[in-house]
Specification:
Order of helices and strands: HHHEEHHHHHHHHEEE
Shape: elongated
Number of strands: 5
Helix content: 40-55%
Strand content: 5-15%
Number of helices: 11
Amino acid sequence: GKVKSQKSSHLWRWFQKQKGVRVVNLTCGLTWIVHILACGWYLCASLHAQAEDTWVMRRVVDGVHGTTLAEREPGDQWLHAMYFVLTVFTTVGFGDMSAFTSGEIIYVCFLMGIGAVVHSIIMGEVINTVTSGDKINEFVSQHRALVEAFAAHTELDEVAESKLRRWVDLNARAWFSNSYDREGMKALIIGEGIPRGLLDRLPHNLFSGMLHRNRFLKICAGVCSTPPRLPLLLALSIERSSFMEDEIVYLAQDYPFCMFLVVKGTFAYVSKVRDSEQPAGAAPAPEPAPGSPGGSQPALADQAAPSSPGGAQLAIAA
């Protein structure tokens, strides 16, 4: 039940991030505020001692028979009130409905003050939501242009250029979403203001708890007590990556600039460099671990499997 609730929460967060859903939420919020203020506009008319002076009586909805809005159904009155509040919010001001009495003038001044703030905030959020995709696409286009320029400069063949472009297309959006002020976040983590209860809780929730369950931190905890800030500081340098089955991630004699914390699947080497292929002066490749089938050795895997079924190998790479 717990795993199912976590999956549904991830799905719900993904659903809320969709641009269409966010625009609908903002539109519903604006409609609700306009509805509340429209009810106040009608209440302003009902509180007048002389009903003939109010906007409900002055509003003629049938010019032939001279029918006023006060004689129509409550739904029509609500619709006209919503229409008036929206014209004030959007500063359109058609002039077909306006304030006349002192009470109406005071309420309309209040409406204009609220509308200038609320409408600008909501419209600003809608514009940011709609144009956020353009920023991501611009970021992806810039990296794609870099790849094309590099391919032209180095005279890459079409296959290599296509693979390089596909790699950029698959990862550029993640690069954009992961760009934030990490140094500023580090200052918050190592600062003294963070509550102790929150500091103890956060490590269990990093990357949906996968980092805390990783064997690397478990081994550290077995040697000595793990400082609560260590997983948080480690998470700042971690990038979540997916690797395809049989993909070569690290070769012998490569510069070891990454540490891979495997959270799903198996990271293993299945062969070693032959002595005849080994460059002069290079150290021999390590032998397979005893008991590993086919030389397969899982590296920091939560659940080590002899082989991973088809699909992506999911790892957190630091």
